[in-house]
Predict the structure.
Amino acid sequence: MSFFSLAFSPRYIALTVAASATVLCAGLLIAHPSMPWLIGLPLALFAGLTALGIWDVIQTKHAVLRNYPISAHLRFLLEEMRPEMRQYFFEDEKNGMPFSRDKRAVVYQRAKRELDKRPFGTQYDVYAEGYEWIRHSLAPTEVDPKDLRITVGGPDCAHPYDASVFNISAMSFGALSANAIRALNAGARDGGFYHDTGEGGVSPYHREGGGDLVWELGSGYFGAREGDGSFSPDRFAATAADPQIKMIEIKLSQGAKPGHGGVLPAAKVSHEIAVTRGVSTGVDCISPAAHTAFSTPIGLLEFVASLRDLSGGKPTGFKLCIGHPWEFLGIVKAMLETRILPDFIVVDGKEGGTGAAPMEFMDHLGLPLRDGLDFVHNALVGAGLRGSIRIGASGKIITGFDIARAMALGADWCNSARGFMFAVGCIQSQSCHTDKCPVGVATQDPTRGRALVVADKRERVANFHRSTVHALAELTGAAGLDHPNRFMPVHFTRRVSAYESIGFDVLYPALSHGELVVGTNDRRFRDAWAMARADRFAP
């Protein structure tokens, strides 16, 4: 974009008008020196606004000001008024929580290392249906946040990975800008946690920061594909050999749009995206709805084993949002039949998803995280396999409480996408799919992407992770535990009416070890287990 077109773009129009008015007033003052007060005051005003706009462009703390000099200050003015305005006008009627306590504000505070403590007690209505809490202990413990890690890698894995209990969930280069990827990965390195690449391949920007990577391989096999879109073992092995890549994750489905493929429009397929993904420039980049490398549960597990071997023995697993229960149970039966086990399974909740998706898919397709997580955990317990397979969880995970709750339902660790997007400056403008992100996070427009300053945002990414894991450690200690993986459903309670609350142990009953194999009467599993097939996904 030329300087002229940029100056007259809507983003910079306020600065352009202020600068033009300054020049005009200065000219009038020179032409009419006898009118200093009449012309001088407007000159001072417009000169001040011009100086403010120039400072907005060159400062590095606020991406929205770099993209919208002068005019974006209105947002910060409203933000200063937010606690009072939201307290009285924007209360969330569903759970009685004032919107000023939204999780995005918590992320911003932690990312900026601002005080995230609040006075005058909880702002939740603790008697409202849906309110949840942890049962604390009268014998609290001290938990070191540095100890909150989990080893991933089963008996067939040559290189187990020591993962943090909180990591960056899958977001692709192409969906996010180069600077956003740089900041996320550098922050992951600073904080000692991993960064999931998303299905868009491993870009140069993922590698610049040197942070640990989990390579997500979707149905498009980006970065590991032949010209016809089929999987390429040789290209996969060449990329997977990179020591920065710690684990391999096959994406079966995602929470935002399970059972749906994806299209990156031709206009957004730049040269560097094409090189990263192994596709042609200027052509729609298609992610099919289904994989072509396998079509059965046994085939999936054989693919897992193949990728593990091709990667040199790195932990290999898959991610999915649970749909038909018999399909996942078919995978479990295939595990029992073949004795091929994934090193991990990541359960994605349908409420998750940071990218754009059809409304019907986002709102009404797939199991929410808690239901899916409880189902996967108990299915593996019931098959006698839980001790050999780790479980990750993703789906609106933001706070230490969110992590603790997921771990009580069976997760070994959690991933967050939107939390880390907030940390790099996302303001939820809902323009991810338009390429016009105002803060340079979800765009391929280089003039917008430059607004995101990597050095500043990498620090915020690490800060958010550090503060959230610290909060998790404090919650764990308050419950009298020494590690959050010791949270169980019995530690959590949910209010189901103004007069009644129920423990998670009642809401989420557990299967016993091997119960599915010997036969179960649990209606959640009995019929679906009978329908499940190892040789096909259909019943």
Q: What stands out?
A: The two ends are 55 Å apart (CA to CA).
